[in-house]
Write a structure and sequence with these properties.
This protein is α+β, with helices and mostly antiparallel strands. The protein has 2 helices and 6 strands. Strand 2 and strand 3 form a beta hairpin.
């Protein structure tokens, strides 16, 4: 194994998602270009969680952008972490901010933002946005690329 994967527990093996985001393991790998400010983006067009009141599924399109420092998130662990919300009851705001804080705490990025574009429940979409700070000067930060609600889909 390379030094990038020596401490990873999920990559290359059978790893099943858990049903609780607090128990989900997020892993990181060294950033081979820590000397460069660049944006890495994860787009999650089919994120799901459960309404904590009704137990009905909620759906969102998430966009996660970050400027890495010394660490990158390992993508399989991110997928498993995000999947752990499928049977987890939480409000839209809680899911979105929980994801952002876990990534911030794991990676200590130079900058991170998340856009949670939630599909309507009761006729009202709830979009949730959060970022750690202003992005580093000179870094290209693309638009989220998700239209405001007009019958999203």
């Amino acid at each position: 194994m390379s030094h990038y994967t020596d401490n990873l527990t999920q990559l290359g093996g059978d790893a099943r998602p858990v049903d609780d985001p607090a128990r989900a393991v997020l892993e990181r790998v060294p950033n081979p270009h820590a000397d460069v400010d660049y944006v890495a983006r994860f787009t999650v067009p089919e994120f799901t969680s459960l309404c904590p009141v009704t137990g009905q599924p909620d759906f969102a399109h998430l966009v996660i952008d970050y400027v890495p420092g010394d660490w990158l998130v390992e993508s399989k662990s991110l997928k498993l972490f995000l999947t752990s919300f499928r049977n987890h009851g939480a409000f839209h705001e809680d899911c979105t901010i929980h994801i952002a804080k876990r990534l911030r705490d794991l990676l200590a990025p130079r900058w991170l933002r998340i856009g949670g574009f939630w599909y309507p429940r009761g006729g009202i979409p709830i979009d949730v946005f959060w970022q750690t700070s202003e992005p580093p000067k000179g870094v290209l930060v693309p638009d989220f690329g998700v239209a405001t609600y007009r019958g999203r889909g």
